[in-house]
Amino acid sequence: MKAAIKLLGLMALVVVFASSCKKDDDDTVDDKTMYVILPGADAQEEVQTAMIEMTNGDTIYFNGASFSFNNTLSLEGKDRVVIMGNGRLQTDLNFAGQVAGAEGLRISNADDFTIMNLT
To answer: How many CB atoms lie within 10 A of CB 23?
Structure first.
């Protein structure tokens, strides 16, 4: 009897563990990507490319102090994404020199996104 209870408990743990391994809507296993952006002349192009290529649950990480952009950065149709920096006083996204676009960072048709550790 005790062995049957232990086996039943073990089976319950396996079911809980298996159900916690989520899959995306497209039934692929959660393989998340972190796009690391460094300051420099190519930063704007690298960020926009990452925003186009990223999938649900991916992260864009600004690894540096100050980033200057002259166009809107646009993210559309991605859920559970994270846009983050080194810290509120350490990473700055500057759109003061923007010559095209009405917004600095435009996020549309996205749910449950996080912007953190940047100014």
So the answer is: 9
Three-state secondary structure call for residue 98: coil
Give the N- to C-terminal CA distance of the chain in Å, as an integer: 61
Task: Find, among 113, 119, 101, 115, the residue nearest to 57 by Cα.
Answer: 113
Residue 76 structure tokens: 């559309």
Indicate the DSSP class of residue 77: S
* Token pair for 84: 């983050």
- Cβ-Cβ contacts under 8 Å for 104 (sequence gap 6 or more): 69, 72, 73, 93, 95, 98
Q: Decide: 54 and 60 in contact? Cβ < 8 Å.
A: yes
83 burial via Cβ count (<10 Å: 0-12, 13-18, 19+): buried
Tell me the pLDDT tens digit for each residue of 8-33: 333 333 333 333 333 334 434 468 99
Tokens of 117: 């550790």
Query: What's the residue count for the chain?
Result: 119
pTM of the shown model: 0.72
